[in-house]
Amino acid sequence: MDLYSLTLTEVAKKIKNKEVSIKEVLDNIYSRIEDVEPKVDAYITLTQKNAYERAEKLQQRLDNGEDIGVLGGVPIAIKDNICTNGVKTTCASRMLENFVPIYDATVIKKLEDAGAIVIGKTNMDEFAMGSSTETSYIKKTKNPWDLSRVPGGSSGGSAAAVSAQMAYASLGSDTGGSIRQPASYCSVVGLKPTYGLISRFGLIAFASSLDQIGPFARTVEDATIMLNVIAGHDKLDTTSANIEKEDYTKALINSVEGKVIGIPTDFINDGINSDVKLAYDNAIKKLESLGAKIKEINLEYAKYSLATYYIIATAEASSNLGRYDGIRYGYRTKDFDDLDELYRKSRTEGFGDEVKRRIMLGTYVLSSGYYDAYYKRAQQVRTLIVENFKKAFESCDVIMIPTAPNTSFKFGAHNASPLEMYLEDIYTVPVNIAGLPGISVPGGFDKNGMPIGIQFIAKAFDEKNLLQVAYTFEQNTSYHNEIPTIEEGK
Amino acid sequence: MKEYEVIIGLEVHAELSTKTKMYCNCSTTFGADPNTHCCPICTGMPGVLPVLNERVVEYAVKAGLATNCEISRFSKQDRKNYFYPDLPKAYQTSQYDLPLCIGGHLDINVNGNKKRIGITRIHIEEDAGKLIHDAYTGDTLVDMNRCAVPLIEIVSEPDIRSADEAVAYMQTLKSILEYLEVCDCKMQEGSLRCDVNLSVRPVGQKEFGTRTETKNLNSFKAIHNSIEFEIQRQIEVLENGGVVHQETRRFDDVKGVGYAMRSKEDAQDYRYFPEPDLAPIVLSDEYINNIKDNLPEMPHIKKERYVSEYGLPEYDAEILTSSKKTASFFEKTNSICNNPKSVSNWLMGDFARLLNEKEIEIDDSKVTEENLASLIMLIDKGTISSKIAKQIFEEMFETGEKAEDIVNKKGLVQISDEGAIKEICQKIVDANPQSIADYKAGKDRAIGFLVGQVMKETKGKANPQIVNKLLLEIINK
User: Fold this and answer.
1) Phi-psi sector, A10: left (phi>0), alpha (psi -120 to 50), beta
2) Which of A120, A364, B48, B453 has its CA 20 to 30 A from that of B248?
3) Candidates B50, B85, B271; nearest CB to A327
4) Do A103 and B43 touch (CB under 8 A)?
């Protein structure tokens, strides 16, 4: 068995026990990348030099008998909107194609303090805007299960890298489903923690009140270990919650005995693919057979989530992306006569269509005379959605819904209608709107062999319940053991 | 010509004298080399987040309490979005609909009349950077040292009716902010500046006229002159049958002329919305009361105390207390020499004149409280005459030397030895028979001439009372 096909937990143990050297692990993962990356295109930047230097230092410390951390020597990939000191962080945009941060995001510091080795930066939708990674200015990432299909998005590179065994785990960011949906499309575990559990310092903002960093991994256990490392209050992010640190691995108990699983029947509508629906029904049966109690719940406001999302997220984005003006860093147009033209041309040329579409939408909903009708109303609906979930959690421990209504689609399938693509996030967006934790775990395959994800949602900061149910589901199913062919599908 | 009434409201921007910036740990010190007081946070690099400096809230609350405002228990920060190269995030973090302080007032004194000016609100916001135009290369450069230096904006009600009232309001506000030590109020460095909203209407008309806003005035003179200018301009426009346009204006202090910058039609849509990166500001009663209980003595209270405790005239008390620095200089000097009226005379007279000429603040002067006190004590003991003291003070002001040292160095000790003075008096009397005759003929003024001659002979060192006494003795003998 090749090293790269081990789980994070397994490889960390082998390194710690000195069954393998960190260099061997790195050699192996980079050779895997060399083999597979030309087909998948998950990475924007590979950081061999830094990685090998770190590997040597970590190995020395390990050989000196030091504890090098729970992720000691484990290769990890990072979405390219998370700032890495001295390493290009592009947001897959022409605007930041050559941007090199002079600081690390808090999550990078935490990962490195735990011994992780960053091996590369992964592709994504430009500025995390999209659900297929097709809006990347840099390249198109392919789904390892069928290279003619998208990996999902926006964290498509991070999902594909883990799915194609080019990293043991990775970080993504999730604003409306950008971790869970690609996890579902690529058959890996994708966790979006509660808003405020992970510091956003160093995450290049898309929509500040919705963005959250989270891990991709091959198993729930691996994702939990990643969560343990990156969670916690950060004084550089005043929206990060100041709560006591928990050991989430304590939640890895193979039992749902007595747990109440909420099923929002009214929310699973006609737009759902029949194979996905079948997988979902099977998941319900599985949990019931394992001793969980299934309870129908009502989320009547959830259906307004997408509309709410496209007002709040675009409003915040239109402001957050104002700083890319060609003045201090990033792309600047070649020819301009005055300041106004410098702004206009730099932004016209530096941003792609989807980013511009959202900036315009956001500018519109915040503009004088429209604020009350759009932004203010959206915030009011947001409050209703939050209350809706609160009420639902009075009668259940964890809510289960599919991660996405469909499985991965062919490149360009939604080019004609961006709105169709927005609908792919219908099951993930409510979770961001309400600031809750959600996780997608492999839940089956459609008739084309494309992966289906099952999503669990819990109360804010109730990651333990979330992980226990997800872990139990995973331990009693075998979908996560399937590995992709990395070939073009039929 | 009709009689017109003037309606003025001021928006005052005061840079808070916190050590660090509003959302990061960069220094706020003025005058550093360009782009040396900045970091990824205040220069708006991708991925950074703001952390509110708690001092900013504390200082704004102090200003609110000292101006009789209601302090909001719940307020929030908002983004004001616009593009400009000195604004690296493309939004200014400010406060829109829920400011920290609301509904206060200030009492001002104009030509002996008291007047109350309402304060609509005080909110916190960050300053922008500075553009520097390089005349040599034609480039425009950005200095981000001032980016995110904290400000408070103090918005008055449209209660001000003249340039004098506006200046009095500004002076009162300045002295309060100085007393609170929340702003260094160095207007020439721009740390205290104001925008003037002004309209005129014929007396008796109920509706307000169209107002203009003159931006960024940073001296009392500029405030006064720009208001006089704008009043005249608006009246002329109306008298000539024209209409005043709502617009933003600038005032050229050197030329004494105001001009239009942009009209209302060009006004930007700032797309205000709540700053999602910062939690709302929630203040407890305990927090506010604690600040209230620890506010320093405000100028109007201090003034009353100067009258009752030191027996100073109200006029003196008013001037001494209008600046915290002057007041504290007064108190410290007097604590040493215990002659309040004399200290007051120095501070309001020669000292003030020299400070004005040099255009420096009292704490930048070389004269210390100890030195002024010992000068006064030298006069009080009769060691030097008050005339000599004026010379000595000028030298102290120039060099920072101690009064005693100058007196000793130059031999300026007053001659009070009657024997020595008598000799000189006799000499002067002998040399001026005509003056004696005049005096005896009833011209009292002649004695003044003789005193002057003696003083001249002694280079001003003779004690003038003794000179006077001895001259009369000699002449009347």
Assistant:
1) alpha
2) A364
3) B85
4) no
Strands B247-252, B212-217: pairing is parallel
If we measure between CA atoms, which residue out of A173, A208, A169 comes closest to residue A193? A173
Question: Would you give the distance in Å from CA B197 to the centre of its chain?
Answer: 22
pLDDT at B337 over 80: yes
By CA distance, what is B81's nearest residue in A?
A319
DSSP reduced 3-state for B104 = strand
Query: Is residue B351 very low, low, confident or very high in pLDDT (cuts 50, 70, 90)?
Result: very high
Which positions ≥6 away from A396 have C-beta within 8 Å? A260, A261, A262, A295, A297
Q: How many helices (H) and strands (E) does chain A have?
A: 15, 11
B52/A238 CB distance under 8 A: yes
Helix/strand/coil (H/E/C) assignment for every residue in B186-226: CHHHCCEEEEEEEEEEECCCCCCCCCEEEEEECCHHHHHHH
| C-alpha torsion sign, points A443, A444, A446, A449 | positive
DSSP annotation of A425 reads: G
* A245 part of the active site: no
HEC string for B379-432: HHCCCCCHHHHHHHHHHHHHHCCCHHHHHHHHCCCCECCHHHHHHHHHHHHHHC
Contact at 8 Å (CB) between B61 and B101? yes
Closest residue by Cα to residue A155 from A103, A206, A106, A102: A206
Round to whole Å and give the CA distance between A18 and A25: 11
At B407 the pLDDT is 84
Minimal Cβ distance to A375: which of B46, B88, B273: B273
pLDDT, average across residues B23-29: 96
CATH number, domain B418-475, options 3.40.1080.10, 3.40.190.10, 1.10.10.410, 3.90.78.10: 1.10.10.410
Angle between helices B299-310 and B324-337 in degrees, nearest 10: 20
Q: How far apart are CA B468 and CA A189, in angstroms?
A: 106
pLDDT at A1 over 80: no
Q: Domains plus CATH for chain A?
A: 3-261+395-481 (3.90.1300.10)
Q: What are phi and psi of A419, to 5 degrees?
A: -60, -40
Question: Residue A172: enclosing H or E segment and its boundaries?
Answer: strand A169-173
Number of Cβ atoms within 10 Å of the Cβ of A321: 26
| Cβ–Cβ under 8 Å, residues A359 and A319 | no
Distance from CA of A327 to the nearest CA of B (A): 7
Dihedral Cα A239, A244, A249, A252, nearest 10 deg? -90
Q: Is the torsion defined by CA of B311, B317, B320, B323 positive or negative?
A: positive
Element containing residue A349 per DSSP (H, E): helix A339-350
Give yes or no for a contact between A167 and A144, defined as CB atoms under 8 angstroms apart.
no
Q: Enter the DSSP assignment of B295.
A: P
Domain boundaries, chain B: 4-287, 299-410, 418-475
Tell me the three state secondary structure of residue A377.
helix
Tens of pLDDT, residues B297-321? 998 889 999 999 999 998 999 889 9
Q: What is the pLDDT of residues A186-240, one digit of tens each?
A: 999 999 999 999 999 999 999 999 999 999 999 999 999 999 999 999 999 999 9
